[in-house]
Design a protein that fits this description.
- With 590 residues, the chain is an alpha/beta fold.
- It has 3 domains: 4-178, Rossmann fold (3-Layer(aba) Sandwich), CATH 3.40.50; 198-355, 3-Layer(aba) Sandwich (Rossmann fold), CATH 3.40.50.1220; 368-565, Rossmann fold (3-Layer(aba) Sandwich).
- It has helices at 4-14, 29-36, 50-64, 82-91, 121-126, 141-153, 166-170, 198-210, 220-224, 228-238, 269-275, 329-339, 346-367, 376-386, 399-407, 429-439, 451-456, 461-466, 482-491, 509-515, 526-538, 557-565; strands spanning 19-22, 43-46, 68-72, 95-101, 131-134, 159-165, 214-218, 241-244, 259-262, 280-284, 304-309, 323-326, 392-395, 417-418, 445-450, 471-477, 519-523, 543-548.
- A 6-stranded parallel sheet has the order 2-1-3-4-6-5, with helices on both faces.
- α15 links the parallel β13 (392-395) and β14.
- It is globular, with a radius of gyration of 25 Å.
- Mean pLDDT is 93; it is low at 567-580.
C-alpha cells in the first residue's frame, strides 16, 4: 500500500533531490520507507545529530544551487534545527526542513508536552525561516511541497519548514485521488531572474568610466546567482581592484593580478588597505555586512558606490548608493559586460601590485616560522600546497576562517570554499563535509577547525567513517577558545573561561578519530607536518590531522600590528556596542 510518505519521497525525487540528511523518528518513518523504495533516485544520509543534518543539507545546497533537504521528528528533533536554519537564512541558502508533528487530533494537547514531545513548532519555525507551514490535510500536501520549493528558491533564497502531522504521513495515498506534479522552475535557485532597468546600467557604466581607482566587492550573491563566469569577466574588464567577502570567495580566481583576497578583519591585509584608496566601490551580491564593511566604516564619505542585489531592501540599508541596480546578479553583470568597454588604469594596477607584494612579504615570516607550537599559517601553507583544483575546503567558524582566507587562495572561479558566515556558529565543518562528500562523490573534502569548533560535532566523525568519505579533517589545536582568549586577555587580563585544557586533561582528537574508525595523526613539530598531510591526503577514507599550534596566533590584522609594534592600538572599551555609522548619501565622482 502506498502512503503519504511515498508521495513526499516521490515529489522530492521528481524535484531532483538526490540526498536527504536527517534522523528518523516514529512520526516520520513513512518518509524513510518511501525513500527506501526509490534508492535509484534519492538516498537518505543518517546523521548522528539533527543539528548536523541542517549543516550537511546547507553544504549540498551551496554546491548544487538546489534546496538542501533535511528531516527531523517532532519535538527533540525539531528543536535542534535552529543553528543550521539561521545560518541558511542569513546566508541566503535554499533549504527545506521536513518536520514531523503530532497527529492532527492531538495538536490541542501540544502545550507543555501533555502529548509527548509536543510544542508549538509552527510559531517556532516561523521566526527562523523564510516561511513555514503546517500541513492541514492529505489533499493540501502536494501543493505545500510545491510552495516549499518555490519559496526556498525564489529571490532571496532561504530555508523553509514543512511540518507534517503523523497521521497524514501514515495515511494511504491513492494516486488516482491525489495527483502530484512539480514546478521545474523551482528545482534550483534562483527560481526567477530579473534584469536592471536600462537607466541604471547606463549610469553604472558612466560612473565606472569616470573612476580612477574602481573596486568591486563580490559577495555570496554571486554564487547564489551562479554568476562566477560573469563576475570574472567583469573584473577583467573593470581595470581595477576585486575583493570578496568570505562567502564570496571563488567569485574570481584570487591568483589574478586584480584580485587582492578577502575583505574582512580576518582576511587579506592588502584588501583592507587597498579598498580605502578606491574612489568607487561596486557592492556586487554583497550586503555590506559588519565584517565585510569593516564595522560599517565602508564606504568612506568620499567614495561613490554602485549596489547590485536582487533584494530591494539591500539598496540603502546602511548607505544610499550613488547607483542602485535592483537585479539578479548574473543578469546585471551580463548587461554591464556588454556595455562596458575594457578599462585600463596602469597607475591603479601598479598600486594594487605594490600593496599585494607587501602583504605577501608579511605572510612569509609566519609561513616560514620554525616556532613551537607551530604557527597556523605554516599549517595552512602546507595544506594549500597539496590541494587540487577540484578539492573543496570547508571552514569552521572563528579563527579558522581567517587562516583559510589568508593562506589558501582560490585558484579558479567557482565555489571551492564553504564558510558558515550567515551566523558564524561553531561546529559547521564536520557535518558540512559530510554533505559535500555525499554531493560530490570522489571529490576530496578538506576541513579546518579549531579544537573548540571540532569538539562540537566530533561524534559525526563516525558518519564520515561509516560512509568511507574522502575527507581530511585538519584540527588546529591551541587548547583554547582562541577568539575568546584574545578578547578576554585584551580587556580583562583573565583567560580562565577560554581554556579547553588543564594539567590533567589534554584531549587527543587524533586518538578519538582512530577510535571512531578514521586515520588519526598527531603533529607537534614542523618536520612532522608534511609527512602527516601526505599520509592523510593519500588515504582512501576519512582522516584527522591534529596539529598543536600557537595559542597566541591570530589572523586579525589590527591585533597583529599591535603585537608587532609592542603597544596599544585604539580599541573599544569592554561592553562596547558597535553602532552603525551615520547613514549618508554617497557622492558621484567628480
Amino acid at each position: 500500500m502506498a502512503h503519504m510518505g511515498d508521495l513526499v519521497a516521490e515529489m522530492l525525487a521528481q524535484y531532483g533531490v538526490e540526498l536527504v540528511f536527517g534522523m528518523p523518528g516514529g512520526q516520520t518513518t513513512a518518509l524513510h520507507d518511501g525513500i527506501s523504495r526509490r534508492t535509484d533516485r534519492i538516498r537518505h544520509v543518517l546523521m548522528r545529530d539533527e543539528r548536523n543534518a541542517a549543516y550537511a543539507a546547507d553544504a549540498y545546497a551551496r554546491l548544487t544551487g538546489k534546496p538542501g533537504v533535511c528531516d527531523v521528528t517532532v519535538g527533540p528533533g525539531a528543536n535542534l534545527l535552529p543553528a543550521g536554519f539561521i545560518e541558511a537564512l542569513n546566508a541566503s541558502v535554499p533549504m527545506i526542513g521536513i518536520v514531523g508533528e503530532l497527529p492532527l487530533d492531538w495538536l490541542s494537547l501540544k502545550d507543555k508536552g501533555i502529548a509527548s514531545q509536543g510544542f508549538d513548532q509552527l510559531s517556532f519555525f516561523k521566526t527562523i525561516t523564510k516561511d513555514s507551514w503546517l500541513v492541514p490535510s492529505k489533499a493540501a500536501l502536494p501543493d505545500l511541497i510545491r510552495t516549499a520549493f518555490r519559496v526556498a528558491t525564489s529571490p532571496r533564497p532561504g530555508p523553509v519548514a514543512l511540518i507534517i502531522p503523523h497521521d497524514i504521513f501514515d495515511a494511504e495515498w491513492n494516486e488516482d485521488e491525489i495527483k502530484i506534479g512539480i514546478d521545474k522552475r523551482a528545482i534550483q535557485a534562483p527560481f526567477l531572474r530579473s534584469a536592471p532597468v536600462a537607466s541604471s546600467v547606463a549610469d553604472a557604466v558612466a560612473l565606472i568610466e569616470r573612476a580612477q581607482r574602481p573596486a568591486v566587492v563580490f559577495g555570496g550573491g554571486v554564487h547564489g546567482a551562479l554568476a562566477c563566469n560573469e563576475a570574472t569577466a567583469f573584473a577583467e574588464k573593470l581595470g581595477g581592484l576585486a575583493v570578496t567577502s568570505l562567502t564570496g570567495r571563488g567569485s574570481v580566481p584570487e591568483t589574478a593580478a586584480y584580485a587582492a583576497g578577502t575583505l574582512n578583519p580576518l582576511g587579506s591585509w592588502a584588501a583592507i588597505e587597498l579598498i580605502k584608496e578606491a574612489d568607487l566601490i561596486i557592492w556586487c551580491g554583497s550586503k555590506a555586512s559588519q565584517n565585510t564593511a569593516l564595522n560599517w566604516t565602508l564606504p568612506l564619505p568620499e567614495q561613490a558606490t554602485i549596489t547590485i542585489d536582487i533584494d530591494p531592501n539591500e539598496h540603502g540599508r546602511t548607505f544610499l548608493p550613488t547607483v542602485a541596480m535592483f537585479s539578479d546578479v548574473r543578469e546585471a553583470l551580463t548587461l554591464l559586460n556588454a556595455a562596458l568597454p575594457p578599462q585600463t588604469r596602469p597607475e591603479w594596477a601598479a598600486r594594487i601590485a605594490e600593496v599585494k607584494a607587501e602583504g605577501e612579504r608579511q605572510k612569509r615570516s609566519e609561513i616560514e616560522s620554525e616556532q613551537l607550537p607551530l604557527h597556523p599559517a605554516r599549517v595552512m601553507d602546507e595544506v594549500a600546497a597539496r590541494l587540487e583544483s577540484s578539492d573543496i575546503v570547508v571552514s569552521d567558524a572563528s579563527f579558522s576562517a581567517g587562516w583559510i582566507a589568508n593562506y589558501i587562495p582560490t585558484t579558479r572561479a567557482g565555489r571551492s570554499v564553504l564558510y558558515a558566515r550567515g551566523q558564524g556558529g561553531l561546529g559547521y565543518a564536520i557535518p558540512a563535509a559530510i554533505g559535500a562528500a555525499e554531493t560530490l562523490p570522489g571529490t576530496r573534502i578538506v576541513t579546518v577547525a579549531g579544537d573548540g569548533a571540532f569538539s562540537y560535532t566530533i561524534g559525526e566523525l563516525a558518519t564520515q567513517a561509516q560512509r568511507n568519505q574522502k575527507v581530511v579533517n585538519v584540527v588546529l589545536n591551541n587548547g583554547r577558545l582562541g577568539w575568546i582568549q584574545l578578547w578576554q586577555d585584551i580587556f580583562f587580563k583573565n583567560v580562565q573561561s577560554a581554556l579547553l585544557e588543564s594539567q590533567s586533561c589534554h584531549p587527543n582528537f587524533a586518538a578519538a578519530a582512530t577510535g571512531l574508525g578514521l586515520m588519526g595523526i598527531y603533529v607537534e613539530k614542523p618536520d612532522e607536518l608534511g609527512a602527516a598531510l601526505d599520509a592523510a591526503f593519500a588515504y582512501d577514507g576519512p582522516s584527522v590531522v591534529e596539529v598543536r599550534v600557537d595559542d597566541l596566533a591570530t589572523p586579525i590584522h589590527s591585533f597583529k600590528r599591535r603585537l608587532r609594534e609592542g603597544g596599544d592600538t585604539p580599541r573599544p572599551r569592554p561592553g562596547t556596542v558597535y553602532k552603525l555609522r551615520d547613514w549618508k548619501i554617497c557622492p558621484d565622482l567628480p
